[in-house]
Fold this sequence. Notes:
The protein is 52% helix and 17% strand. The chain is of the alpha+beta class.
Amino acid sequence: MGDVSWSSFGEWWQTWGAPIGVLLVVVGAFIAFWIVKAVIGRVVHEVVTGVKRRADAADTEALSSSPLAQVRVVQRTRAIGSVLNTMVAWVITALALILILSILGVNAGSLVAMAGFLGAAAGIGAQGVIKDFLNGLFMVFEDQLGIGDVVDLGEASGVVESVGIRVTQVRDVHGTLWYVRNGEIVRVGNKSQGWARAIIDQAVPYHADVDAVEQRLLDVATEMSESPEWVGRIIDKPETWGIESVSAEAVVIRLVVKTRASAKDDVARELRRRVKAGLDDLGVELPSLQKVVVQGLGEQPPKGGQA
Length: 307
C-alpha cells in the first residue's frame, strides 16, 4: 500500500513537479523583490523624515528655505532608492531565470553558454542603454546634479526637473522640456552648488573720472550688501576689479559681488538698477551700447581677487 502511494506520488511529481517548481520560483522572486523594495523604501523614508525633522519642514517643498545641503540629501536619497530598486529587480529576475531553466532540465553548461551569448548580445545591442545607466548612476552618487538645480549640459541648459537612470529632464528658460540621455552628457556645469558671482561690466565715457566712478560702484554695491533684504544673499564684500577694457568711446569697469548660488540673478538685476541710479547721481552720462565692446568677460580674477 505504501509502495503504491509513493509510486503514485512519484508519477504525479514527474508530471507536475517542474511547473510547481517554476511557480514557486516566480512567487519567491516576487516576494523577495517586495521585501527588498519595502526595506529600501523604509530606509529612504527614514532618511527623508530625519532631514525634514532637523530642518523643521513639513514637506520637501518647504525645504527650499532650509540649507541647500538638506535639500540635496532628500533628492539624492530618493534617486539612489530608485536606482537600487531597479538594480534589485534585474538581479532577482536573472537569478529566477537561472533557477527556472535549471528546473526545466537545462544543464549548467548550457546556462553558461546562454549567459555568455546574452552578455555578448547586450554588449553589442544595448551598449547605449548600459552607458546611459552607468553614467546616470555615477551622476546620482557623485551628486553632480539634482532636481531643481540650474545646469548647463552642453546641448541643453536650464532647471533639472527629473534625474532618471537613462534620461535627465531639463526645462530651459523658454519652457521647453529637454530629454537628455545620460550617456551623452560629457560635462555638467552646475550653477546651483555652493556660491556664484554677479558680475557687472559697466561702461562709462572715456573722459569720465574712473576713480570716482569705481568708488561710486563700490559704495552702491556695499550699501546693497548691508541692507536687510540682501544681507542673506550676498556672502562677501563687493569688489571692483578695475578697468576691463578701453576704447575710444568708453571705459569698462568690472564690479563683482559674491552671492549664494540661487540668488545670483536676483542680485545682479537689483545691482544694475542701483548702479544706474548711482551713476545718475554722479552725473555720468552712459555711452551708447552700439559703440561699446566689452572684453575680458569670463577671464580669471585679477591678482588679489578672490578665486
